[in-house]
């Protein structure tokens, strides 16, 4: 069976998207669904290529029992072909991705990650880079909740994910 390929995207790929990647990875693992997914993250800028996630992000994740080992990489045009769901952390990342869209098929893969959380009017994951410890902790909670809502969406769409639990 083809795996569902998920790509989380932010600007630097050292704060929000690695946090989202780790949260979603932990969630599907806890649900016994890891085998159905390939999960990755990237940044639109390439500013931090090859770097581990920001230490503040790794600390905030660790407090929530998440280990982040991802190394930053820049978004590649071919990611749009490879991945099934391309989840932007904010509207600026979303707009960047839209510039590379060449078909409706690809357009339909791109979402604002937080838009899956219908309980929340905010559709963006706020950038904590110039913020405080509290902002980094807040990002962890936001991406955990959005991960849960996104997995619920996927379970509706792919019944085999429900049967496997
Ligand atoms: P991220 O946060 O996009 O969530 O990884 C940022 C990381 C680095 C920078 C900005 C935002 N930067 O300007 O270097």
Automatic annotation (TrEMBL):
Task: Read off the Gene3D superfamilies from this record.
Answer: 3.40.50.2300
Q: Which SUPFAM superfamilies match?
A: Phosphotyrosine protein phosphatases I (SSF52788)
What Pfam families would the database entry show? LMWPc
Q: Which domain of life is it from?
A: Bacteria
| MF annotations from Gene Ontology | protein tyrosine phosphatase activity
InterPro entries named in the record: LMW-PTP, Ptyr_pPase, Ptyr_pPase_sf, Tyr_phospatase_low_mol_wt
Its keywords, alphabetically, are: Hydrolase
Q: Which residues form the active site?
A: 10, 16, 127
Q: Where is the Phosphotyrosine protein phosphatase I domain?
A: 4-153
**Family, similarity comment:** Belongs to the low molecular weight phosphotyrosine protein phosphatase family.
PANTHER family, per this entry? ACID PHOSPHATASE, LOW MOLECULAR WEIGHT PHOSPHOTYROSINE PROTEIN PHOSPHATASE-RELATED
What name appears for this protein in its UniProt entry? Low molecular weight phosphotyrosine protein phosphatase
């Amino acid at each position: 069976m083809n795996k569902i390929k998920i790509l989380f995207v932010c600007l630097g790929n050292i704060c929000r998207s690695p946090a989202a990647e780790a949260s979603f990875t932990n969630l599907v693992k806890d649900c016994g669904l890891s085998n159905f997914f390939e999960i990755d993250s990237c940044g639109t800028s390439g500013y931090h290529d090859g770097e581990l996630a920001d230490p503040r992000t790794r600390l905030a994740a660790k407090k929530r029992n998440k280990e982040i080992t991802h190394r930053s990489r820049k978004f590649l045009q071919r990611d749009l072909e490879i991945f099934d769901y391309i989840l932007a952390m904010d509207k600026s990342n979303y707009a960047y991705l839209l510039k590379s869209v060449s078909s409706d098929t690809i357009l339909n893969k791109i979402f604002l990650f937080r838009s899956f959380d219908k309980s929340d009017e905010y559709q963006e994951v706020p950038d904590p880079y110039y913020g405080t410890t509290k902002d980094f902790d807040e990002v962890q909670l936001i991406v955990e909740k959005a991960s849960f809502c996104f997995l619920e969406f996927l379970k509706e769409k792919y019944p085999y994910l429900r049967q496997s639990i």
